[in-house]
Structure formats: structure tokens, C-alpha cells
Specification:
Layout: E1 2-3, E2 6-7, E3 20-23, H1 24-30, H2 33-50, E4 58-61, E5 64-69, E6 79-82, H3 88-103, E7 115-117, H4 123-133
Antiparallel strand pairs: 1-2, 1-3, 3-7, 4-5, 5-6
Helix pairs in contact: 1-3
């Protein structure tokens, strides 16, 4: 994300600030096949270490994640289906959908170079965040 034309710490710094820009390229980087292979590879490896007698519900093939589906009948092998919901295009659509729902508009445009600018937080969201920060007498940043 960038704010006011400068780099402001990237996506890992927490909540966006007014003027921050989220670009499709950033979402694509976070959900690239290499990133998925890293994250899901760790999960699959842990599954095999901890639950070696059970079939893992996920598998990786050339950076693509597949979900294990139930067999269609008794004594049949499980089926596998590629999980498209973790791809960068699907993640971008989810972001657009959420923004459209909140704003009551329809702006579904998944084009290269597309970006979203953060305009601020509503009063209700700000109040909910303040209550969360002060819960239990501890202030969270």
C-alpha cells in the first residue's frame, strides 16, 4: 500500500490509513502460486508429521492447491479438485465484493492496474475498534 505517493510500510503494517492504495499487483503477489506453495506446503508437512495415519485434505501440484473430496461410493478412491478460491483473481473479487456491499455500488472491474484507495473508517467501525482496543483494560495498537 502506498499513501500520498510514498511507500507506507506495505500490507503487513496493520490497518490502512486514508489515502493508502491497494493494487491488484499486491494481491497477486500475496496469493501467487509460490506463496501458496509455501503456506500450504507447511500445513501439509505438519499434517503428515502430526496425523500421519490420516489422509491430508490438501495437496500441492505445481503451485496449485487441490482439496480432497469424498469418494463417490464405498471402496472408491477420493477425488481431488483444484481450489480456485485462493487465487489472486478470486481474492481481488472478494475485496471488490466487500467494498461494493459496504458502499452499495457495483464496480466489478478486475483489470490489470486496478487499485482501491482507502477513504477512511466509518464512525461505527471506529467505535467498534475503540471498544476492542480497550477490552479487558489493555490497549491494543
Amino acid at each position: 500500500m502506498t499513501g500520498g505517493g510514498h511507500v507506507s510500510g506495505g500490507l503487513s503494517r496493520g490497518l490502512p490509513r486514508v489515502g493508502d492504495i491497494l493494487r491488484f499487483a499486491q494481491v497477486a503477489t500475496l496469493h501467487a502460486p509460490q506463496a501458496n506453495a509455501f503456506y500450504f506446503g507447511e500445513f501439509i508437512a505438519a499434517w503428515h508429521r502430526q496425523l500421519s495415519k490420516l489422509d491430508c485434505p490438501l495437496r500441492l501440484e505445481e503451485g496449485a492447491v487441490f482439496k480432497r473430496l469424498r469418494p463417490e461410493g464405498r471402496m472408491l478412491d477420493a477425488r481431488w479438485k483444484q481450489d480456485s478460491s485462493i487465487g489472486s483473481e478470486e481474492k481481488w473479487r472478494a475485496i471488490e465484493y466487500d467494498i461494493n456491499r459496504r458502499l452499495g455500488v457495483s464496480t466489478l472491474h478486475m483489470e490489470e492496474g486496478l487499485a482501491l484507495t482507502f477513504l477512511g473508517v466509518s464512525a461505527a467501525e471506529r467505535k467498534a475498534r475503540m471498544q476492542t482496543r480497550h477490552r479487558g483494560g489493555v490497549e491494543y495498537a
